[in-house]
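Hi all, a correction to my earlier message: I attached the wrong file for Coenzyme A biosynthesis bifunctional protein CoaBC. Here's the right sequence:
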Amino acid sequence: ESLKLKGGSLAGKSVVVTAGGTREPLDPVRYLTNHSSGKMGFAVANAFKNAGANVTLIAANPLITPPSGVNFIRVETAAELLAEVKQAFVHADILVMAAAVADYRPAKVANKKIKKTADNQTMTLELVRNPDILKEIATIKHPGQLVIGFAAETNDLISNATKKIQSKNLDMIVANDVSQSGIGFNADNNQVTFLFAAGKQIKTNVESKAKVADQLINIIATQMQNQ
Ligand code: CTP
Ligand code: CA
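and the right structure:
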């Protein structure tokens, strides 16, 4: 059962939301990416705006139009996302990382289109790790700043997500089962479990991403009032 949100309950708060999926270039015409559309992050940004917050929305390659009334920044790669998040977080009360960040990128980016050759039937790509944005944010986080992650899992949802709360020093994680079509990646609906650092869990029904976002904002507003 969700509480009705009092309008303006996050008035005066500065919020940074990330959305979409990063693209990691291989050459001028190709990149590695994932199935993130930006829909969940955009719904979260819009819900914060409706609650009266000042919202910076940093989006990696979204497939949909951003909400109006937010400070919108577009990025492509994980490295660009890291730089923008770090800069915006300094003045923020809350960060919600809904973006699907590529864990690896091609070790070399060719400046010309890579050509296939007649004799090569296989090709091996070398990838290198991207920075973990949430782990970097944990090193500059002040007490009072809330940091919330998402966990995209196909299996062992709660145990995998719980480990991420600890390893990334999060206040909360939104555990998202991405194994079923109809919810999660690029779907209009979602079903998530909100997991708190202290161990409490709240599971939503299958609902529109807007309704899931409203529940997240309600929980955050309550947490901000209590601290
Ligand atoms: N994340 C991040 N920087 C990365 C990778 C992920 O900040 N380089 C953030 C995501 O935005 C998300 C959270 O970390 O909020 C969890 O992302 P997820 O991909 O589920 O977890 P990983 O830690 O990358 O672990 P794995 O993909 O191996 O499950
Ligand atoms: Ca990952």
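Sorry for the mix-up. The mean pLDDT is 94.
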